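In response to reviewer comment 3 from the previous cycle, which asked for concrete evidence that the modeling workflow produces usable outputs, we include below a single protein chain processed end to end. The sequence was submitted unchanged, and the resulting structure tokens are shown without manual editing.
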Amino acid sequence: MKKFNPGTISISLFFIFWEILGRVINKGYILPTPINILLKIWALKESIFLTHLPATLTIAVIASILTLILGVALAIAMDSNKTVYDSIYPLIVTSQTIPITALAPIFILWFGYSIWSKIIVAVIISFFPITITIYNGFQNIENDEINY
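The workflow returned the following structure tokens.
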């Protein structure tokens, strides 16, 4: 007999509990059941998968490319020059203290409801982890070279 994975059991129990609770509450606008959600996705499959998914993927791909270019460039600049690091690193850290929910309306005012306001929000969200992770990776490589 095959053993069940504890993660599979806990996720299954979660969805069973959610389904039961949704049926007990019996108000789909408060807590829709997983089955009702799947039925609605199936009913809207054409607009979801042919209209909204390509638009979202376009934004995600463009934002990822821009973030990688900008993040790698800044990580290289910070790694290669201590003055650049000292001047840019505080700005990068400070940029994370402003909630994105406060910036998003400003970007919509500046760029409108176009794709670019969404791309800039996605870049700001992913910029910090990419830049700092790549910079830390460069620092670890240099530390490994010193140890050998």
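The chain has two domains: 1-43, 46-147. We consider this sufficient to address the reviewer's concern, and the full set will be provided in the supplementary archive.
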